[in-house]
């Protein structure tokens, strides 16, 4: 059975093409270019003072690499996160852009953390090598540029890949290049924590499998208790509507066969029956005409259907569960750097209050939709839920994954400012803002191919299935964080989308083959590019 109410996009607008730019640059495009240029220029002016005008050329080049990396994270990772919302028709590109701009940048600035690790994921150990600070800067610069170039290539192909794996591959590649220059091949390979590489390989399988299993199970329940119930109700409503139409036709024919005197008498009876229906103490026995008796019977059948019962009963429960997961993701993951000082009990109480508020709000909203068509009501209520999950995802992404771009760049700033290599580096707020803007600009200019892949090329999306995919991904991310499982949020979400497609029996497995290959290629491709860039930088400077 195909997914319920797939075509119920209001006003016939398909969001993937609504905002797609034509040839040349639109005013909207030029505005983003201007914003990007202004943000970049302002940050460079600030950064020159921050680094005491040390190694100006390297600082400018490193800033360009870092902003380019953030730009491509927006085009791939953020686009991947919002693909289900846009593909389902919940948000247009511009609306997704607005939400991403607010929540991604807010997450980065508010909860991104004041310090970050200088070596992502502890993937290399440089403690045994005498590394010059400028060589360390070149490692990070090479990693940023290589990861950005790989992400740009993948985004152009519409392949959602892991930005974390890209930057890790870049750091590994440039570190090995430095190790070969200093100590030879064997010593260089010993710098890499190969067990961490093994966990990345495990994530290629574990992440999509977990995402797919949770999504498959959750969407099966939603489809069984909500969508299929709504299908049955819609069929019955159409049957009643058809019977009403037949009743009118039969009544019209019978009325035309009456004599003029019979028509006058029957018309008076119809008027009395019409008035009787408006009386408070009305009963079926008060009706005089067969037409109104049958019409009253059809109305009784329609009223007895409780067509919106699934929306009023099951959706608020699903929404409350979703609110619990999203709030947990925000409190335990998105806001972890803010050190709010909440005890475990306080945290769970906050989650409970949020869940209760969302349950009540969704229940009230569902009741207000009773006068709306059932398919549109389903579309609207799940659209609101999907916006809620997308916003939570965006904030958590901004708080955590922006470090894929800001982490190596913060390490560069720290070295240029202090002249030494530290285990962690300060993350200035101006850098967060500039990189957050680059993230949004990247989403607008190069994110549409990835959005198309996640939103409708892998499988067709409805707000109900898009909400399920996002919620399932959030649940798996939380589960993995709790148990320390090696997973990728990008791979988890793709697995969740595939789980939706398996329930609906419409998964595009042919498209998944190059995406899976890209996942495997990401780390070595970024590593090879990074090694090459490192050699070039070392030769130039």
Automatic annotation (TrEMBL):
Which terms under GO biological process does the entry name? phosphate ion transmembrane transport
Query: Which residue ranges run through the membrane?
Result: 30-48, 54-75, 96-113, 133-154, 166-185, 197-222, 314-335, 347-366, 378-396, 431-451, 471-503, 515-537
Q: Which UniProt keywords apply?
A: Membrane, Phosphate transport, Transmembrane, Transmembrane helix, Transport
The UniProt entry, under Pfam families, shows: PHO4 (PF01384)
Recorded GO molecular functions are: phosphate transmembrane transporter activity
Where in the cell? Membrane
Q: How does it sit in the membrane?
A: Multi-pass membrane protein
List the record's Gene Ontology CC terms alphabetically. membrane
Q: What is its main location?
A: membrane
Tell me which InterPro entries the record gives.
Answer: Phos_transporter (IPR001204)
Member of which family?
Belongs to the inorganic phosphate transporter (PiT) (TC 2.A.20) family.
> What's the protein called, per UniProt?
Phosphate transporter
Give the species. Aurantiacibacter xanthus
